Amino acid sequence: MWEQINDILASRTNEVLHFGDQLEEFEQNRSSTMAKHLRMMVDKQVQIALKLPQQIERTAEAESYELNSVIIGNRRAHAELLARMEKEVS
After folding, report:
1. 51 φ/ψ angles, rounded to the nearest 5 degrees
2. Does the structure show a pLDDT above 90 at 40?
3. How many domains does one find in the chain?
4. What does the longest C-alpha to C-alpha distance in the chain come to?
């Protein structure tokens, strides 16, 4: 019986770790996609020359800062979620 319980707990632990890996991969994909699109936006706005390049870059930096803040918040939430899930396994 103890072996079965240990097997179930090990399986659940592996599932929690796999879930954590999926969350991290998702966040990395989101980050790289947003960075790529932000660079494309800056390049297109510079080509259009609606504003000076420095103004466009300052706007992009503000957007980048906000995106980074969201990503950091998401990673904190992921870490807390995984800690809770791992605690439940113990």
Report:
1. -130, 170
2. yes
3. 1
4. 72
3-class SS string, the chain: CHHHHHHHHHHHHHHHHHHHHHHHHHHHHHHHHHHHHHHHHHHHHHHHCCCCHHHHHHHHHHHHHHHHHHHHHHHHHHHHHHHHHHHHHC
Q: What's the one-letter identity of residue 41? A: M
Note the pLDDT of residue 89. Answer: 60
Where does residue 49 fall: left (phi above 0), alpha (psi -120 to 50 degrees), or beta otherwise? left
Q: Determine the structural domain holding residue 66 and report its residue range.
A: 2-89
What is the chain's mean pLDDT, rounded? Answer: 89
Alpha-carbon separation of residue 65 from 12, 31, 32, 61 (angstroms): 37, 12, 14, 6
State pLDDT tens for residues 46-67: 898 888 989 999 999 999 999 8
